Amino acid sequence: MSRKSPVQVPEQSPRLVGVVDRASRDRTRRVVISYSSRHPRYGKYIRQRTVLHVHDERNESHLGDRVEIAECRPISKTKRWSLVRIVEKAPVKAEIVYGEATAKA
């Protein structure tokens, strides 16, 4: 079974920065781009979001990472974006050791 060549991202394609929301599929990430816009009548700021399916060729991004993505050719029915780079890794969760806490009590 031969794999296709990596996805080529044109230099002039728009770049967006978002957070990886779901990383359960192989080579596919769900990235959420949050923004706020002003309501046309009431003037209140409304939080909105855009959800994009992104192609991650090397499976290098994980849940909570801030990533930069770029538009590319259609890869599947929903994937139209490709991972360019990881801007910031997600903080590692601290593990709680329950054995020491219960031994002291």
List the helices and strands and how they pair.
Blueprint lengths: L14 E8 L5 E11 L6 E11 L10 E6 L7 E10 L9 H7 L1
Parallel strand pairs: 3-5
Antiparallel strand pairs: 1-2, 1-4, 2-3, 4-5
Which keywords apply here?
single chain, 105 residues, mainly beta, OB fold (Dihydrolipoamide Acetyltransferase, E2P), 5-stranded mixed β-barrel, 1 helix, 5 strands, globular
Written overview of the protein:
The chain has one helix spanning 98-104, and strands at residues 15-22, 28-38, 45-55, 66-71, 79-88. The protein is mainly β. It has a 5-stranded mixed barrel. It is globular. The longest helix is centred in the C-terminal third of the chain and has 7 residues, at 98-104. The chain has a single domain (15-104), classed as OB fold (Dihydrolipoamide Acetyltransferase, E2P) (Beta Barrel). A hairpin with a 7-residue loop joins strand 4 and strand 5 (79-88). The protein starts with 14 loop residues before the first strand and ends with a helix. The mean pLDDT is 86.
